[in-house]
Structure prediction request, 382 residues.
Amino acid sequence: MLELLRPVSVEFRNYIDGLPSQSLGKKVHFHSGGDFDKYDQYKIALIGVTDNRGLASGVDTVDLLKVRKSFYTLFPGNWHLRIVDLGDIAPGESVEDTYFLLGKVIADLVKNGTIPIVIGGSQDLTYALYRGYDKLEQMVNLVCIDHKLDVAKDGSHAAESFLSRIILEEPNNLFNFSNLGYQTYYNSQEEIDLIESLYFEAYRVGEIINNIALAEPVLRDADIVSIDINAVKSSDSGNFETYNPNGFDGREICSLARYSGLSDKVSTFGVFNYNNQVSETLLLGQLMWYFIEGVNYRYNEYPFACKDNYIKYIVPFDDYENLVFYKSDISGRWWIEVTIGGGVNEKLTKKTLLPCSYQDYENAIAQQLPDRWWRAFKKSLV
Prediction:
C-alpha cells in the first residue's frame, strides 16, 4: 500500500525538528519511505491528496505543506492514541487513477482499524473514500458537511456531482446519505427534491446553527464524514478566493468535527476543497485537532457494546408498532430500534439501532414519529 504514498520531504522533517518538544509534530510518526508494515499499530493516519482537478478551477493541485505546518505546531490534548503521517498521494495520470489509489489506501487502513484523516484536494475525492469500502462487505452511511448537495446534473464539475455517481453506480453500498449545512440558494429545488425522494437527510445551515446538537445523532451513525471547507463562511475560514458570506463559523465547524470523532462508527474523515489560501490552514489544522480529540474520548458503545447493558424504554404508539428506545447510562446518548426488511439485501440486519436524541423520545411520547426513524422505515420498504 505505502508504495502509493509520497513521504513528507526531508526539509519538512527538519522543520518539525525545530518545534517545541510537546507540540503535535513531535508526537507523530512520519513514514519516510520503504517498507512499513506496522501502520495498524496507529489509531490515526494522516494522508494528503493533492489532486484538485475535480473542481475544474484551473488549479490542478494543492500544496498541503502549510496545512501540515498549522496542524503540527498545535499542542495535543491529553490523548492516548498514536498518529502516523503517511505523506501524500500524488495525482494519477487521470482523476480516475487518483480515485483508485486513494480507495486502495482507505480500504487497507480501515480494514486494519486505522482511521484515515484525508486532506484534499477537491471534494470529489469523497467518491474514492466511499469506493474504499467495496471490499469490506458493509453498507455505508455517508455524511457531508457542505453548503451544496453535490447531486448536480451532468456537465457540472466532479466536485459538485460526485454524490450522483455514488447513488447510481454499482456496486451500490450506500445505505444512507446525510447533508449538514446546505444553503438553499446554492441548490436547485430539483436537487433538494431528489434527496427527499430517496429518504436521505438534509439539514439547512440555519437548523444546525440554531441547535447544533441536531447533528450529533447524524454523525454518530456515519461511516464516512466529508467536509467541504466552503461550508464555513469566509470571514471564519480565511478563504477569500471563493467567497461565501454565510455558513458555519469556526466554533460550529470544529464542534461538528469533534462530534465526528466521538462517533464510535466513523472510520474515515476528510476535509476537502482547500483553496491554497494560507489563511485557511489555521482552521484546517484545528478541524483535524478536534476530530482527533473526539476519537480520543470515544465511549465504545453501540454497535461495539451489547445493547442489553442500556436502559430500554418502550413507547406505545397509535397506528404503529411500539417504539423501542435505548439510553446509555455512560454517555446519556439515545438510540431507537428500527426494523429493516429482511431478505432485501443480505448486508442489512433485520433489527438495528438508529442514533437519535432525547427530543426524539419526548416526541414519541407525544405521539410524533421521529423523522429519522420514519425515513429509515420507509427506506427499508423500497
In short: The longest helix spans residues 95-111. The mean pLDDT is 92. Residues 43 and 294 are 12 Å apart (CA to CA). The chain is about 30% helix and 20% strand.
